Amino acid sequence: MLLSSRVATTIAAATLAAVAIAIPAFAVTDGALDGEGHPNVGLLLFASEGGIYRCSGTLVTPTVVLTAAHCTTDITGDTIVSFQSFIAGDTATGKDWIPGYDGTNYSTIAASGFNYRPTFTTKGITWYSGTAHTAPNYSNFTDMANWNDYGVIVLDKAVKGITPAKLAPRAYLDALDQSTLNSTLFTAVGYGTEVRQADSGPQNPTPMSYPIVRRYALEPGQKLTPQILQVNGNGNDTRGTGGTCFGDSGGPSFLNGYVVTVTSYGYTSNCRYIDGLQRVDIGIAQDWLKTFGVPTS
What we know:
Thrombin, subunit H, six-stranded antiparallel barrel, globular
């Protein structure tokens, strides 16, 4: 059984459909290795519904990680977070890097979840444990006007040595008219699957589960709604450098140094089209985040 991923919803035509894919959750397509460019962006790992999933998130206070709501629902045990840029290389088993995995006990971990507190280092990776919280008004991909796909992980121990990211001021994106939006590049960051040619078989661009590394891509704005920022995630677009894919769910997009969105959904299964990003500059999101001590303005 492969490591699964909490998958951002794929939207086809006018139908909203949650797509189950047996690979880690949304990741940057094309783009570039991040290195230490965004040290406050981390990888989330958690158990849910009998599987182990990964998402991305952003440290916004020393003890709060911002992510997507669909990465915080129905969690078994703790969510664990690592801010290391490199997590795992190409691997045949796909599970050797998972904390507590001994080569045989994937199902046991998936059923019981992670229960490490408050921080630990294993297999060369430092993890912080925390508790997931989902926005109370999350519509679970059923209401585009009230999407609210944001959540937080409250860590058991403060992260030291990493400066938290800043949320954009309230209604920050509303200042962009359509022309400005189309010429604005948003920086998406995450640990999702890389889209590249398969190692064998038909040489079509395919989401590949490994390596698990932090990457970033520049995405031009396409459309803005009261809840959603749509961006062009095709690496062939000469205005940008790529987009998000499976595993990048919950990861941030930055504009002028501010976190303006978290990755929510995509339109195609090969991660080569439009990405849907949940705005966190909106009042309903910022009012809820305040209750966890996240600074807003």
